[in-house]
What we know:
two-stranded antiparallel sheet
Amino acid sequence: xxxxxxxxxxxxxxxxxxxxxxxxxxxxxxxxxxxxxxxxxxxxxxxxxxxxxxxxxxxxxxxxxxxxxxxxxxxxxxxxxxxxxxxxxxxxxxxxxxxxxxxxxxxxxxxxxxxxxxxxxxx
Length: 123
């Protein structure tokens, strides 16, 4: 299913799996729902009206959640390889990859800061 073109319209917003369901491979579904909730709370508190806050929420959250959903699909596709040569190569590459390289590759997913109450452009 293609990603939604927006998470909010008017005075209604979607959060979590309703907005951006993703495969469970990196275990980010609940994390992203929490990020959505925190972002929305900060923006609602800082915004003069609900519509502006929801528009800012939509603008902030879609790029990040799309990136994480794409990574999740790719991880899942590789994890589900069935061909013996492909699985042997995958398993070998995983064993040879240093843990620090794995953490560096995951940094865009693992590192997140809530938006500042006065900053409507944080992600």
